[in-house]
Batch of 2 targets.
Target 1
Amino acid sequence: MDAELAPIADKVLAGQRLSADDGLTLLRSRDVWTIGELADHVRRKWHGTATYYNINRHINYSNICALSCKFCAFYRKKGDDGAYEYSVDDVVKQACEAAEGGATEVHIVGGLHPWLPFDYYTDMLRGIRAAAPQLHIKAFTAVEIVHLARISKRGGNAAGIRSILADLKDAGLGSLPGGGAEVFDDRVHDEAFKGKIRSDQWLDVHKAAHELGLMTNATILYGHIESLEDRVHHFELLRQAQDEAIERGHAGRFQTVIPLPFIPDDSELEHLYGPTGLDDLKMLAVSRLMLDNFAHVKAFWIMQTIELSQTALHFGVDDVDGTVVWYDITKVGGASTHQELGVKELRHAIVEAGFDPIERDTLYRHVERDGAQWRAVEPAAVGAT
Ligand code: SF4
């Protein structure tokens, strides 16, 4: 064992919170096996061998975006080759198809469209709610929420954000995804994500959502121009925000952290290598160890691959996302972006790794299914808190 990890191992085994220095030591260490074992210990305390997946569908309503983030290969400007925007009817139709196919969730995000009015978004939610009432709608990153506050002239301040979220919730929004967080550092933001909201606004959106009783997720995009210190700082801010939600007794809080590897292909940062498999495993494990108040750590197989996600189950991960149909945001090695994994393959991968697959809905209730028909049941109390 890397001798520097010994005091950290003592803390983990005693259930004590790790410091920022501990986080940095873990990220600097090459002893990936010990880090994995420690994360696995915490993962088993929370969830035993349970491993969650869901049947969902991603809908990217438009790739037209007012911004041009350097790391992004998704956005287009109006009139560009490949630029598109779906009508409300198109989105509702796709959601209905997903529901008919047995999906429990639609995950809806898009670019910051300069001209679509706020009604487009509420009509979309209401349309889906009316046509497929059982489907959970997880939609709009914090970046989109601030954009909606601005285009509806409510401003990007706390009051504007809260009022937008309240209207979206009223129209059918069920929870927020965790995208748009990137790395909470102003230097990195100004260099790679110029114009995109900074950490304070991203956190304001999630805190307002928690107050309104909405569950949310959090991401961290790593392996580009950020430092290891930036990654640890990101974990600290997330942990602090979750502490606040818990202490204030909000009905909403963060459910899951999703560490996302930066994929350089076709972006303005194409000259970078992007993270390696070992970096992926270490980030997943350190997320589990640092975020002691987050219930779940997800490997997003579409970016990390199903093979690495399988291994990651031994590195603190308890969730492998879903069957993910039509995911347009990220390409892996230039491959088709329309990716899908059958439930059988997903379950097989989990079982082969030595874990127990459990289908969940968005709120981590267990799903009992008869073909495309399903119902959610509350799980027996699991794990640590
Ligand atoms: S990352 Fe999001 S905000 Fe930035 S250019 Fe891409 S779609 Fe637009």
Target 2
Amino acid sequence: MLIKIKLTILYIMKNFENVKNKNLSFSTCKTCGAKCCSGLYGSNFSQILLEDFEKVYKNFLILFSFGDLGYLKASLILNKEYEMCKYIVDSKCSIYENRPSVCRTYPLSPNIDNDIYIDESCPALELGDNFIKDGIINENIDKSIFVSYQDKFIETHFYLEQFKKEDFEFVLHIKGVDFYKYTKESKDKYIQMHRNSLKHI
Ligand code: SF4
Ligand code: SF4
């Protein structure tokens, strides 16, 4: 029981804040031990866009969950509990060129409000401004994933509306969220990729 409580406290340590008006430097990942690849620090699943499916399904499980208002969301499952991502080898990502968007942008993250957020719990962040200066992210950082994120998020939302809740079956529960697979016959290319990803369960 004590162990469970400690793990829960670590899990909630992620702290995403809007980058607006922030000044932060990024030092190094060398001494961190890849916390952003660990379920222990809350890296378990991440909501994905339609454009992410193609890249994600070959390496990760894609499942669906239902938001508070019943809206369907697609997520990639990085890991199910408190372990490291299975692609960590010698503290390095073994699929670096094909890692998902959530890994590419971290500690930055896109958001539905079209602003960019940063996880201030990343150990590499420190006082300074070589990474973010007055809310502006360094020009050498690839920001293509953030462009039109709100439009892509809404497009994904409306596309997934065609799938009905009664056609999903519960698969697993991760840290308070129930995840489902689609059970009906479908030629939809995203459902096909979801089905192919089930080999990663
Ligand atoms: S990005 Fe941050 S959390 Fe991830 S390995 Fe580097 S220092 Fe660690
Ligand atoms: S895909 Fe690579 S970068 Fe992403 S969580 Fe796994 S090991 Fe880390």
